[in-house]
Amino acid sequence: MTTENGKESSSGQGSRFGGLEAAVEISIASSIGKHLGDITAPYPVTATELGILSNDRTPEALAKLLEKGVKTFAGDHDDPETPSPQQKLLRDVEKLVAKIRHISEKGEGHDDDAGGHKEMDMAANVLTSVLLRSSPESGIDPREVEIRREVFGTNALSEKKLTSFLQLCWEASQDFVLVMLIVLGTISIVVEATTHEGPCNTCWIEGAAILFSVCIVILVTAGIDYAKQFAFIRLSKSLHESNTKSVIRDGKQISVTDDDIVVGDILSVNSHNLASIPADCVLLGPASDLKMNESSLTGESHLISKQPGDVILSGTNAVQGSGKMVVIAVGVNSVSGKIKARVYETGDNQDELGGEGENSPLYEKLDALAKRIGLCGTCAASVAFIVSCIVGLGVEGESVSNLVDYLVTAITVLAVSVPEGLPLAVTLALAYSSNKMMKEQNLVKHLEACETMGCATTICTDKTGTLTANKMTARALYSGKVNYSVDDPAVTLGSYVMSHQGGLGKPVIDLLCQCISINSMNETVLYFDKNGKEESSSGNPTELALLHIVHQLGQSVEKIRDTTKGRSDKGKLGEFLSQGKQYGFSSARKMMSWAVPLEGGRYRLYSKGAAEVILARCTKFVGTQGEDSDMSTADSQIMQDVALGYARRGMRCLALAYRDLPAGFDLDSLSATLTNSDGSPAFEGETELTLLALVGIEDPLRPEVPGAIEKCYTAGIDVRLVTGDSPNTAVSIAYQAGILRDFHFIEGTTERVADNLKENILMEGKTFRSKVYRVSKDGTSEFDQAEFDKIWPHLRVLARSSPDDKLTLAHGLNQSNLFADKEVCKRLLAEDGIRIFPDRQVVAMTGDGTNDAPALKRADIGFAMGIAGTQIAKDAADIILIDDNFASIVTAAKWGRNIYASIQKFLQFQLTVNISAVCTALVGAFTYQLSPLAAIQLLWVNLLMDSLASLALASEPPIEALLKRPPVNRTDSMITKRMCANMFGQSAYQVVVIMVLLFKGPDIFDGMEPGHILYEDDINSVHYTLIFNSFVWMQLFNEINCRVLKGEMNVFSNMFKNPLFYGIWITTAVLQALIVEYGSLAFKVADEGLELKYWIVSMVLGLGAFPVYQIIRVVYGMFLNKDE
């Protein structure tokens, strides 16, 4: 028969069911034809009814759903004499339902006969084929996707409600300084309007201008926060696009994003790389050894074994085995989707662009700095107010109404002392950098991870796909004591094996192809066109390399799988799938096996895994014509030498083996003597193996990696390779990449292999664990930091490692205080040339597997692989490498350092403004009881102009010089000695200029009247306008100086490569000119603006910032540059 998609169904190959279940299967085949080709026909089941099944998750719930759904499907017309196929199906399903209920009531659970859970298995088939109009073999028709989405809902949750712009404005207005300015502006308007002598035509302007300035700041701040919400939406979309699953549609296994999955899709999962479940599903037969971790939903930590017909919930994870399942509920109709929807509705969720967790080191430094500045500003404002009151009221005898002016001056001092633009600068720097990093293959989940990466001192990286291209190709094979090695890229390994030295005999080729095809994951598939040309592939790259060998040897992987009892899940052979036994791959075992039944109750077990693991379990090997020979010590050594040769060429060496097990053998029995690499007992069936072949698989190094690692070393970042590969493979790749250098090897040796490395440069996971863990008195294992500190300065390669080793490495590096032991640091430098970073390590860790998640969480910055990474690893990471490329990590480090530098640049600029403005305002308060710089003028400088400067300086692109400096210490102040020199030097220059203009300006320039005298007559003076204009131009030209932090001579370097910077600078300059010439009412400048000579003076004084910078640079280099 064919399914609705036109594909051959299982009955075409014979049924795996018998009795009632077989009758139901026949009824399905004869009845579903009425809807063939009609993709718009109504479904006999609703999303609500499927949701009830998800919630109840009992055999009774499935029975009720089938009963009701099949009745709807069959219709009301029933002729007892000649029943329609649909009515016959209904009767058969009713019998099946009755049987399920009978078993359920008796508490027998699933029927455990040879058919294996056949009632629930068939119930799942009815649900799939009849109610959901899908097919366990060929899935849904791709044309139905949109219709299914309309009927059953989408798997993409609706976007959370955004905080309104008005709400964000209200939150922004709660800032203490802004509240004071609002009060100040309001008081100013009221006082001026009520106490002004004569008509109040424009007396309200200054207060209104202050309020207008506050409005602009609030709007800018709210605008940034509003934009962050959309940034979160973009991030969520990017993350969802990286979450892919394997589904069957139109008979082909394809990858789709979680959001694109619809009800009826046939989902393939396994515990290796497709573990997370994106929607509620029902497991399809035949039975498989699938175990789920449901702790995320139920809180139960023990694993749940699943059988056909069982409901599997979204948000849970497969931790053992594999299986096929049909999707029954998506999005808000699924169990976890309902929970997420409720969370969104309550508004308690935290976005991934910040959250409310602990502050990063950058924010802690900034918070401490802001508190110190705020305290100093409050003291300065208080002093200004008190002194003004004493001098003005007590000495000068001024009116009490002048208290408002004194208060205005005091609040002005406070306003200019607080760097209000700093939070904006930080937000802009992080947001700008994260957007740029996205374009350079770094998807940033947490903004603070950007700057943390700039402090990284150690990168612990995977090999496969990160340092290498993850394009696995089998290039060598050893079998029957013959080594087949291909050097010509145009020649395939399979064709070379068939032709070289007479080739392998057919029995060996058959065994080899069976071992590869049977002992591989369902999700690893190759697709070929009619001409035998490969169209596409999906699955594990290592397994794909092996599957290509089968194809090159002229055999079909699918045919071998589908015709092997205990491995096939199709047709009548599917009945025996439960008799097969899969021993899944794990990092502890470093191998996987699959046992399939033979005649007479015997089994054949096929194994593949790391060469040293399999070879240690082999007692025989296969000859060129298929004959078995005992493996002598000499034979074993020859094979180990072959594996070593492959590893030295940088190839991953896998071994393929098999074993025939006698009738009655217990497949679950454990060996009493042999253990896995983690010390757990090995399966008895995986011992006494017969070696089939050794296979060398090449994964070429990415061409950009050596240069990227060289940049890391130049930047003071150590790179450590953490891999599951053999020591020699790891050493070969590490040496090619530049992680290992010639000085890491023993002097006098020329071969770059593991045995020639100095002590502790390389360790295997087992040795590493034995050294850094000690057994306590109560028998528990404890981490030994002191022993770890003896190892990690030397360690460059950790081979044959497990995910737990990654976690240990991240924890030990992060907690190490070795830098505090100066004697040890001196000895390491003198004896081994190892320089220990003078602070705690900041650790970046890469990972792709589910088991890597704890290490990614523990590291300061966790990098997950966007292509090869599991969903759980991506959830645990801070940054996702979209291209899985190590060079992208270096890009992240460069941008991280640039963020830190951008904020330092802005601080250097902002604090110079603050120091100068506070000094000017205080001198004015002490002498004239008013500041020569009006409150509104200082607001322009401190709030608006500085906000523009924050955007300009935050947009500075990273330069390669950033990677030629060491990382920043965790405990270092953000304000360096050189920054202090620049700030105080420029401030001193500016204050001197302002003081000269303030006290001597009227004497220097003929006809200029003193500003404090004209102020009493409510006249805006040229004197104070000149001071304001000169002050602003000194800040503008100093902004260019602030682009550099290390005393570089050329402050204009690369400035014109950043159009945003010079565009903002020009805009600010134009605005300043407009304010001076036309802003007399709002900004308290001279009514007629400034004459040309005063403009020339302002510009010359502003340009003076450049020679002042050069003087500071030279003086600092001569007298203060001791520690740099």
TrEMBL record:
PROSITE patterns: ATPASE_E1_E2 (PS00154). This is P-type Ca(2+) transporter. SMART domains: Cation_ATPase_N (SM00831). Keywords: ATP-binding, Calcium, Calcium transport, Hydrolase, Ion transport, Magnesium, Membrane, Metal-binding, Nucleotide-binding, Translocase, Transmembrane, Transmembrane helix, Transport. Residues 123-193 form the Cation-transporting P-type ATPase N-terminal domain. The chain crosses the membrane at residues 176-195, 207-227, 373-395, 407-432, 906-928, 934-955, 979-999, 1019-1038, 1059-1080, 1092-1112. Signal peptide: none annotated. It comes from Fistulifera solaris. Its EC number is 7.2.2.10. It catalyses: Ca(2+)(in) + ATP + H2O = Ca(2+)(out) + ADP + phosphate + H(+). It is a multi-pass membrane protein. It comes from the Eukaryota.
